[in-house]
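Project standup — Tuesday

K.O.: blocked on the structure for the chain from last sprint. Re-posting the sequence here as requested.
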Amino acid sequence: MALQEEFESHGNWLFRYRSYLPILIVLVGWGRYLRRVLHPEEFPLYVADYEQLYFAVAIGIGLLGLLIRVYTVGYSPRNTSGRNTKVGQVADTLNQTGIYSIVRHPLYVGNFLMWLGPALVTVDLWFIISFCLLYWVYYERIMFAEEQFLRKKFGEIYLQWSAKVPAFLPNFSNFTPPQISFSWKKVLTKEKNGLSALFLIFFLFDVSVLLFNPDHYTSRILIGLSVGSGVLYLILKFIKSKTSLLVELIAKDLLIFKSKQSFAKKLFFGEF
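H.V.: unblocked you, prediction finished:
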């Protein structure tokens, strides 16, 4: 198998099992976090007086990643810019506006920041560096596979778009407003797992300190956010399974998006 096809095959395989990467990061990170609790002298970056600041910054970075995902999902029609499914990748249109006008893989940028947050809580420089390298190696293959699919399907349009839009580091000067309205229904359907998981992870990290330090103070704000996000997850899960309130009414959005894409394509190729 040629190296190009091998990378594409690896990327498709890694995408199917991408949910296990955060579990690995959290488990190893939790171990390093508890090690830091027991032996803070082994962690030169750790300063006890700034522990709450570390936690706040880490949560903030994780939330920034979640917000990037929320913005991306809320402004993206279904089946755009490549999606891996059980039958392979699917892309009805190439999303080139909104956040996709400044970066080609905004969801993976969001994922990186979401999981960088828990990594930073460890205050372990080598673990943080290892996480960054592992994430890049893992998702580089996935991005390669997705881009190979999009290049084959959309040809010159894809090449023109990818030539000016970076893969991972945003270029904000390229920003073009989204072509569809923001959909909270889609966000609540797709991102409820990420919201509850993020706060739950930070909560478990913090509460686990009580195993070794009964006097440890857990922020009431963190407790409230964790419980609130968990309750919201259960409510949304119930609504989705028992009602049609969260059924995404995307046919109209997709039709509008396709008509605009068709207009742009004709304009691009001078068909008017």
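K.O.: great, moving the ticket to review. Residues 3-266 form one domain. The chain is about 65% helix and 0% strand.
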